[in-house]
Amino acid sequence: MALPPPAVVGIPLADVDTPALIVDLDAFERNLARMAGRANALGVRLRPHAKTHKSPLIAMKQIAHGAVGVCCQKVSEAEVLVAGGVPDVLVSNEVVGRVKLDRLAALSRAARVALCIDTTALIRDTAEAAERAGMQLGVLVEIDVGGRRCGIAPGAPAAELARLVDREPSLRFAGLQAYHGSAQHKRTHGERRAAIGEAADRVRVTLDALERSGLACETVGGAGTGTFEFEGASGIWNELQPGSYVFMDGDYARNLGPDGRPVDSFEHALFLHVTVLSTNGSDRAVIDAGHKAVSNDSGFPDIVGRSGAVYHRPSDEHGVLDLTRCNDRPRVGDKLRLIPGHCDPTVNLHDWCIGVRGLGSADPHVTEIWPVAARGAVF
Amino acid sequence: MALPPPAVVGIPLADVDTPALIVDLDAFERNLARMAGRANALGVRLRPHAKTHKSPLIAMKQIAHGAVGVCCQKVSEAEVLVAGGVPDVLVSNEVVGRVKLDRLAALSRAARVALCIDTTALIRDTAEAAERAGMQLGVLVEIDVGGRRCGIAPGAPAAELARLVDREPSLRFAGLQAYHGSAQHKRTHGERRAAIGEAADRVRVTLDALERSGLACETVGGAGTGTFEFEGASGIWNELQPGSYVFMDGDYARNLGPDGRPVDSFEHALFLHVTVLSTNGSDRAVIDAGHKAVSNDSGFPDIVGRSGAVYHRPSDEHGVLDLTRCNDRPRVGDKLRLIPGHCDPTVNLHDWCIGVRGLGSADPHVTEIWPVAARGAVF
Q1: Which candidate from A2, A97, A150 shows the least CB-CB separation from B278?
Q2: Do B122 and A332 touch (CB under 8 A)?
């Protein structure tokens, strides 16, 4: 039921229908290369998170840059990724229920597939699904490193869970999942460093407990765009899972570096292209993008190149720009570029990414159109 | 690229994969009949808003209950609705740009189509698109009745705009669009009544100005689920545009009636069916539904039948339930039912609505599966 794309290859950016997701291909490629280079320099593997882009095409570009595979959060995402040619997918999440486990086990015939477990209650169901498929599934034991979401307690409880996984012939204990989600957007460098320092302590006691149990731990996975430098340099994690770096959120760019200034390691490569619908009232302009076109859960989008214009009061299909401090007021029909506050759920609202070359030039053109193939893959 | 539905007709609700949108068909049908009855009793036309459900199938049920047609907000929604058989669609929004105007004018060959205009700058573009298609387009002049979003100033400016529309042979001045969005969720009955009272004053001065210009005003459209009783009883509006009543938001149900108690005119008919993924930590359970499965812009979802369990800390694919005050703690694998805070953007996240009969019974079953055909129709 996907609608046709809002552009065709070859047209100028100005002719792309709105609202539309625009990828600055030049910035995107620099982001891909930069993260690959960082992982290389840190001496760790890179397994980028595909929940950001939901695109096998982008996943394959990440793999071409040296990534060992990708992560995703849902079995249905894994299916779309494997169908698109991705050879190695970790579902970095718990998978609950026979329907999903059977699908994942079946998928493991076509690609290397692993998943996370954080409770003994899931071991039998997972092992039986693998048995029914005649396959062995890789399992990471997820530990709670401070995010207080999923994950078993570190140390002995995690090691005991690993031992029970390892006892199942159809499961293979593949390591630890140690992702600290709530650390990613802590604003100061010191807060993020401290949070990952504590997470490292929790991984360390778990590694010690595993060693006492005689269990090898081939992978310690985790990290996101906000903290990967800490995990990468820790000597503990050996597989990084950042996702947002390819597009770079507005919100991530509000994180501060060691010098107290906003981090600038990655460039904004994802934009929402919008049109001004209405300018009645001297204080405002109304654009054609509200909750159904941009996710506002991590702050409202920033507006490129219109100093003083502030997005506020979103409704389902509209956003209101407060222009009281803007001297360059847009007119009806003007097209604007927004930086989404949070890329992942914004991408999930759209069926297409419109790839543009020369975005900073006088004459940017559409050169690629990518389906958001796993959009809506929530199962 | 839509994924297959998370259910097949005939299976028990317990076997529906999660997260999934569930429609309580019994409550849904009562809501349809109740709103039709209210419009009838008020002596006004009903043109429900299809932006809530994005489904021609549901639109046709509303029309079968007496609605004169439906509204939507986007040209691409109108296309999907007309393709699904809907004979009369109002785009209750400004339509900007030649691409969209040409598509809407072309669509007017297949169905009765109208749109809104709130500035003279749009008249020529709209008229030319209608001329190119060899059609006449209906135009409502949108006035700002207090929402400070789109809409020209009431009174003389609106009447002058109507006069300019009426002068174009390819356009037909069809009336006023007078929707007060921000009044819908004002909490007390008195606040909503006062807001619509002020809106009525703004419509009245506009009707007076139109009369002085010798322009007939066949339609005054507006109203939503939160305020339609006021518009309907005003003697001014003659076409009501509520949308949410079919499903009924968690947030709408927090509106208070004249007795100071929550309104109960419509029933919750839309639910998110979810699974518990993890219960590590004595204070919480983690479910498989975050920002990508439920919209949190108007408050977090409520949880049905687990007193004291509170949804909080949503992330992209997870929601955390605070169980510190819950005595009936869910276990891993349990399925729960959530009432979305805001139905419209939640529906837009899903490809399918799973229709269930006997939801309150011991053995609810899937009896219908409806595509959210205009999901992602943001253009």
Answers
A1: A150
A2: yes
Residue A149 near chain B (CB below 8 Å): yes
Asked if the domains at B13-21+264-371 and B25-254 fall in one CATH topology, the answer is no
For residues A254 and A160, the model is more confident at A160
The confidence score (pLDDT) of residue B1 equals 53
* pLDDT tens column, A15-40: 999 999 999 999 999 999 999 999 99
Angle CA(A274)–CA(A280)–CA(A282) in degrees, nearest 5?
A: 100
For domain B25-254, the CATH architecture is: Alpha-Beta Barrel (3.20)
Domain ranges of chain A: 13-21+264-371, 25-254
| B:226-245 residues touching chain A, CB 8 A cutoff | none
pTM, whole model, 2 decimals?
0.97
Using alpha carbons only, give the angle A289, A295, A296 rounded to the nearest 5 degrees. 95
Asked if B20 contacts B354 with a C-beta cutoff of 8 angstroms, the reply is: yes
Q: Which of residues 270-299 of A touch B (CB under 8 A)?
A: 275-281, 284, 286, 288-289, 291-293, 295-297
Residue B328 touches chain A, beta carbons under 8 Å = no
CATH (residue range B13-21+264-371): 2.40.37.20
Question: What distance lies between CA A242 and its chain's CA centroid?
Answer: 7
Among B316, B329, B353, B354, most A C-beta atoms within 10 A, so best to mutate, is B316
The position carrying tokens 């998943």 is A115
As given in the structure block, the two tokens for residue B351 are 């490809």
pLDDT at position A1 is 53
Q: pLDDT tens-digit profile of B77-88?
A: 999 999 999 999
Strands (E), B308-361: 310-312, 319-322, 335-339, 352-357
Query: What's the token pair of residue A218?
Result: 């081939």
Contact: B376, A152; criterion CB under 8 Å:
no
Q: Do B317 and A51 touch (CB under 8 A)?
A: yes
